[in-house]
Every structure is written in structure tokens, then in C-alpha cells.
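Q&A log
Question type: sequence-to-structure
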Amino acid sequence: MTDMIAAAPAINGYAVEQARAMRARTEAGITPQNEASLRKTAQEFESHFLGQMFEFMSSGIKTDGPFGGGQAESTWRTFLNQEYGKSMAQSRGVGIADMVYRQMLQMQEGAQ
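Response status: OK
Response body:
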């Protein structure tokens, strides 16, 4: 019980901070639909970034040999890497989308 009492100011402080942030967004004209659009754009950016990273990582893998896919494997590997990037970004990613999202919100709030 004493832990809850000790944590109450921190929880209340967090709630007040979140309420102030919501009010600032409302005053800046940022709607929930706009926030969803920003979140989607940030996630797409992270997806593309991760796809490019996977592309670079797999560029040294040779496609020849008895079990290699040859020319077709090298052609389709780009698509596979992009799907890896999308999948990773949709399942919480590496944090790039969160940083981009916060920056876009700050830019919009500052522009108003």
C-alpha cells in the first residue's frame, strides 16, 4: 500500500504531462487522423530503411552452387529483403519509426 502512495505523485505527474501534450496538439491543429497518418509514414520510413539494410547485408551472398537459385534468386532477393523490412517495422521495429514520428510531431507543432 505504501508503494502505491509513493508512486501516486509520479503517476499523477505523468498524467498531467500527457494531458498537457494532448492539449498542445489540439491547439496546434493536430488531429487523431493526422497523428495516424504521421505514424504510418514513420513506419513506412523505418520499413524502407530496414529493407535497404537487409539488402546491403545480403549483397555478398553468392547465388551459385548446387542449392543456389542463380539469377532468379538474385532478382527476387530484393523483394524478400523489402518484405523482411516491412515485417520487422510492423512488429515494433528497431525504434526508428518512433523517433521519426516524434520529430514530425515537433515539426508540425512548431509550424503552427
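Response note: The helical segments are 2-27, 32-58, 70-90, 96-111.
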